[in-house]
């Protein structure tokens, strides 16, 4: 009973005569019990339907059905909202016809795609035009404004090697991309960074230089490649018997750099100098997962030819 009703009943009770008070008191309690029994509460799933028992049956049924539908639609909306938050979205540049200047976006994007495929993760793909960057990319990666960007639970993760680690730590299904041993994980990170920060810049210097400068730059690259060749001695892949973190990071060396070297006209990686590295490249590029997702060799060469092929 509300406070207003209590006050009103109290005023009536006080103003009545002594002989009328017993009957009035009984009437007040009767009305209160009647109000309490007016509503019936029933549990339906995870919500409660309140029914006014004094209303006509067909009206009560309509109201109950309306409340049930409203609760169901609210639950479905929350479920869809949660699914949208939990979805995996890859913003990358993989399928559009690109020039040599945009190939830099394609290499790291392919790393993330291969990691998602390797782990068997379903994801939504959004193709990014690097010549006309979208608001989604600029908001998701405001620091570098580059692809790839992985959106998970509505939160963006940038930088391909960082994304690979995030994928491995977030999804336990499928083969592990990084080794389980802390030491082996640290070494995998070391060699992946060695590829990105040391080998690839040295390769680009050799590809873009000429004459004696190119000869010297080529020798510097080959000195670096000896370290990778030694690391692969006795191994099928960098991580052992399965494709892993360093192998995926080495996409660019196994595919892009070989094509560019042919366009430039230099022998960079040969069987006699780097037997273990050449064996790894052959096994890696012919594995089903990698072979399926690598870009067409001829089309890739065409996109790179204008920048790297020597004329005359």
Task: Report on this structure.
One of its GO terms (cellular component) is cytoplasm. Residues 96-175 form the GST N-terminal domain. Keywords: Transferase. The chain contains 13 helices and six strands. With 312 residues, the chain is an alpha+beta fold. The protein has three domains: 3-85, no CATH class; 87-177, Glutaredoxin (3-Layer(aba) Sandwich); 179-312, Glutathione S-transferase Yfyf (Class Pi), Chain A, domain 2. The strands form two sheets. A four-stranded mixed β-sheet has the order 4-3-5-6, covered by helices on one side. A two-stranded antiparallel ribbon has the order 1-2. It is elongated and about 120 Å long. Residues 38-55 and 97-102 have low confidence and may be disordered.
């Amino acid at each position: 009973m509300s406070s207003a009703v209590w006050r009103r009943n109290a005023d009536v009770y006080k103003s009545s005569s002594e002989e009328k008070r017993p009957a009035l008191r009984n009437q007040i309690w009767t009305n209160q019990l009647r109000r309490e029994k007016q509503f019936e509460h029933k549990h339906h799933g995870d919500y409660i339907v309140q029914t006014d028992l004094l209303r006509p049956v067909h009206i009560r049924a309509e109201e109950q059905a309306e409340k049930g539908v409203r609760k169901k639609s609210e639950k479905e909306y929350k479920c869809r909202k949660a699914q949208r938050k939990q979805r995996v979205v890859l913003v990358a540049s993989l399928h559009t016809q690109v020039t040599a200047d945009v190939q830099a976006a394609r290499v790291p994007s392919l790393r993330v795609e291969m990691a998602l495929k390797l782990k068997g993760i379903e994801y939504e793909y959004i193709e990014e035009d690097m010549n006309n960057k979208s608001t989604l990319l600029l908001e998701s990666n405001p620091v570098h404004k580059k692809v790839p960007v992985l959106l998970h639970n509505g939160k963006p993760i940038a930088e391909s090697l960082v994304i690979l680690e995030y994928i491995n730590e977030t999804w336990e299904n499928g083969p592990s991309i990084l080794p389980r041993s802390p030491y082996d994980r640290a070494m995998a990170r070391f060699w992946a960074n060695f590829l990105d920060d040391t080998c690839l810049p040295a390769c680009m210097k050799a590809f873009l230089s000429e004459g004696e400068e190119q000869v010297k730059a080529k020798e510097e690259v080959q000195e670096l490649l000896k370290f990778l060749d030694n690391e692969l001695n006795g191994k099928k892949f960098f991580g052992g018997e399965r494709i892993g973190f360093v192998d995926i990071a080495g996409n660019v060396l196994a595919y892009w750099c070989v094509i560019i070297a042919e366009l430039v006209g230099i022998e960079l990686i040969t069987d006699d100098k780097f037997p273990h590295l050449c064996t790894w490249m052959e096994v890696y590029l012919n594995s089903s997962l990698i072979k399926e997702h690598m870009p067409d060799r001829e089309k890739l060469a065409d996109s790179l030819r204008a920048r790297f092929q020597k004329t005359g």
